[in-house]
Fold these 2 entries.
Entry 1:
Amino acid sequence: MSVADVLSGVDTLRGVTTIAGTVGACCRVQRLVLPGGGGHTWTVLGSDHRPVVPAEEYLEYLRAQQVSPNTVKSYARALALWWQFLELFGLVWDAVTLENFGAFLTWLRTGDEPGVVSIEHRGARFAESTISARLGAVLSCYDYHVLNGVDVGRDLHRITHRGGGRYKPLLEHVARRKGRRQAVIRVRRPGRGAPPILTPEQIERICEACASWDPDTREWRGSVRNRLLWMLLAETGVRLGEALGLQHRDWHTGCGDTPYVEVVARDHPHEVRAKSGYRRVYVSDELDRLYGEYVWRLCEVGADLATDDFDGTCVFVNLDREPRFAPWRPESVYDLVDRLRRELSGQVPQAWSPHWMRHSHATALLLSGVPVHVVSRRLGHVDVQTTLNTYAHVSEDAEMRTVADWKAFTGGWRVGAHRDERIESGS
C-alpha cells in the first residue's frame, strides 16, 4: 500500500501528527504513521489539509528509491516551503518562471509577504547552506515531473560545456559529448572550511568524564556504556546513527585475530540507519575489551534475560530510564552531550558534537599517512571525492610540509648532474 492510498480518506489523517516548528498554517509538513507497523514517513499538506499531489508524487518516488527517511523529511520541508510561497504569491506550480524562483530565494531569506519591501537590515531566516539545500530539493521535484512528461521547469537548466571547476568523473569527456545540464538558479555558498575536530587529549577527557579505571579496585567507575560510545566513534569514525544501530551480532570479538564491527543497513525503531550500507571496520583490542566489560555489566543487570535473542538487540540501550534495555535514542545522546559540555566547560570546545569524533578520526588517519581511498572506505563514503572535498586541508598541509623541506628533497640533484656530465665526457 502506498502513502497515497493511506491518505485517500479523511479518517486516515487521525494517525498523522504535526512536526514541531513547521512552516505555517497554509502549508505544512505532516508525520504519517504507516499501517501494519510500516514505520513513519512525511508528506506535505496544503491549506485545504489535503496532500499536495505533485509534492506527494515526488516524495513517493523517493520512498520507492529507498532513500533515507531523514532525506524524505528534509525534502518534504523544502517542498512545504515552496508550496507555501506559491500560495502566498498566488502562483500556479506548473506555470512558474525563473523570476519566481529568484523571488523564492528572497522570500526564504526575508520572509516578506507580497507587497512588503523591508528597508531594515535583518539577519537571514535561514543559512545560505540551508537555502541551497531547499532550492535543490525543489528543483529535483521539478526534474522528476519533467521526466514524467509534465511541461514544467524546462527553462530551469542550461547546457554548458564548461563546469566551472566542478569535479567530473573519469572519462567525462567521452560520456558527456553533448555537454552537461546545470541549474540556472543557484545559491552561492561560502567556501567550506576545515571540519571541526577534537584533540586526543580532549577526547580522553570526554571518555574519562563518563567512566574511569580505578587501579586500586581494578574496576571501572562510571558509565561504561557512555565511554564505549565515545571511544567507538573516535576510533572507528562511524556515524552516531550507525553506532546506535549496532547489534551485538555485529561486534566480532577478537579470538587470536583483529576484532571488528559490521555496519549493517537495517530498520531501527528510532529511524537511525547505516547511511552508506554495509562495511567492516576493524577496532583495537582496548576497545574490544571495553565492549566485553560492557556486555558483562549488561548480563549482571539482566539484559540477556529480557529477550530471547540477545545477539539481535542493540548494543547501546537504556539503562537508567524506561523502557529499560530499549534502543538508545539519539536525543538521549545529545542530552548526554549537553551534560558533558557543562562538566567540561573550558576543557573541550563548547560546540562539540558526536560528529566531531568522525572528523577527528579521519584527520588523524590522513595525518598519519593512510591513503585517502582507505580512509574513504573506512568512513563509508560512496565516492572518494567526498573524502577529498571534506578533508582537503589535511592533505594540503602534508604537501606543504613536504615542500618546506625542499632542500633535503633536492639535495642529491646537483651530484646526479655532475655524475651525468662525467659519463658524457668519458671520465
Entry 2:
Amino acid sequence: MSQPPQPPDRPPTRPTGGGREPGRRRRTLVIGAAVGALLAAGAGVWAAAGGGEPRAPAPGHARAGTHTDPLPAGPTGRPGTTSGRRGDERAPGDARRPGEAEVLFREPAPGAPGNGADIPGFWVRDGHVVKAVRDKVIAYGDHGERKWTVTLRGAVCAAPESPTGGKVVIAYGGPGKDECGRLALIDLDHGAKLWDRRAPAARAPRGDHLGMGLAQSGDLAGLSWYGGSAVVAVGDGRRAPARALPRGCRVDGFAGGRSLLRAYSCDDDTAGLQRLDTASGQVSWTYRVREGYKVSNIYSTGPVVVSLADDHHKSGGIVALSDRGTRRSTLDLGERSYQPECGQDLFGTRTGGCRGVAASSDTFYLPTELSPDGGQGPTNEIHAFDLRTGQRKWTSRVPGRVLLPLSVRGEGLIAYEQPTEKAPGSVVGVGVNGGRPKTLLRLPKATRAAEVGLASASRIYRKGTFYIASDRLAGSGADEAMIMAFRP
C-alpha cells in the first residue's frame, strides 16, 4: 500500500548539490555553496540532480558502444584462447617487491573505434569473473583463462551496476539505429543465454532506446531511456504489471540491488520515490519529495539513501529513508563539499549506480571533494554519517591520497586508495572509529600506469582478491588493460 504524503524534508544545513542537465556530459558531485557558484558560472562541473526533459543529441553525436567487430585472437593466434599477459606484468628481472600484491592476471582491452566504446557490465562469481565486451559476454577463470563466451547480435549498452545473483538482464543493440533495443538474460555461472527479446516499445520521438538505464532486483528489472521506461520480469523479459505513474509524471530512473526503487517527477513540480515489490511489481510505498525538488541520485537501496536537487542545480541535501519509506534522517553535511563517482548521464535516465559510496544498516560513507593539502598532492577524506541522526560520526584521510569507499565489512569500511603519479593504489580498511586507514592490499608499482588508465572502472574487493574492470575502451590504440586482478 502506498503511504500518505510525508512531511516536507527539512533543508540541509548548507547547499550540497546541483543539477543534472540532460544532453550534457556530467560528473556527479554533491557540492557546497562555494562550488555551486562555479556551476552557475559554467565551470563545467555538473552536480547530482536531474531536471527537465531530455534532449536528443545534436546531429553527428557519436554513439559509443555500438562497434561489433570480432574480438582479437589470444597470444597464440587462436580465437577463443586466453588473451593478454599473465603473471606479474613486469619487465624481465623486475621481481615482485616485498609487500606488493600478486597480479593474478591482466586482460588487455580489445580494439575499439577511434572515439572509444562503452563496455558496461562486470560480475564476480566463485571461480570466475564475467565481463561484457561489446557484442560478447565472456567469463575468465581465476588466472585469466577464458571459460565461456556468449555472443550477441549487437553491443552491450546497459547492465545493472548492483550484484544480481546468478542471472543478469543486459541490454544490447537492437534493429536498425536502435542502439539499445534488445534484452537478454545471461546465466553467469553456466554461460547460457536464457532468453532474448526486443525491449518494450520506446514510444519516443526517435523511436529507439537512447540513454538506456537498467537496474535489477529479485524478479524485476527496471528500464529507463530518453522518453520512456518499463518494468520487465527477469524470468521472461516481458512487461511486468507494475502500477503506472499518474498522467503528467515520468520515470527519472531506477536503482536495484537490495530493492528496486523508481524515481519520478511530474509536470506540477512534484516528485517522489517508489519502492516496487520485486515479486508482484506493485508499489510497496511512495515517498513524496518536498515541492520543487526531485531525486537526483539513489546512492543505496538498502538502506535507502538518496540525494535531492531542483532543476536549477540547487541541492536539496541527502536523505535516508526507513524500510517503510518515511524520512529517517537528513544528513548534516555542514560546509563540506562531497564528490562521489556517478559517471556520465547524457539523457538523465540513470539515477542509480553511483560509485565511491557505501552504506551499512546504520552508517553512510561519502568521499569529500579534493583539496591540495599543502602541496602533498590531491587529498580527500571519507566521512561516515549516522543514518539514525544524520550526524557525522568520523573522518578518515591519508595526506596526498584520494580515498573512495568500496564496501562495508563487518562494522568497518573497505576503501580504494587511488594511485598517484609515483605510487600505485591500495585496498585499505577503516575501523569503526575512523582514523588513518590500514593497508590490506598494496598493488604493484609495475602495474601503476595500467591502474591509472582504468579511471572509469568497476572495483570489487571479494574474499581478499581485488578486481578492476574497465567501463570504457579508450580507442586510442594504446596498450590499455580491460581487467586486472590482484591477491596477497
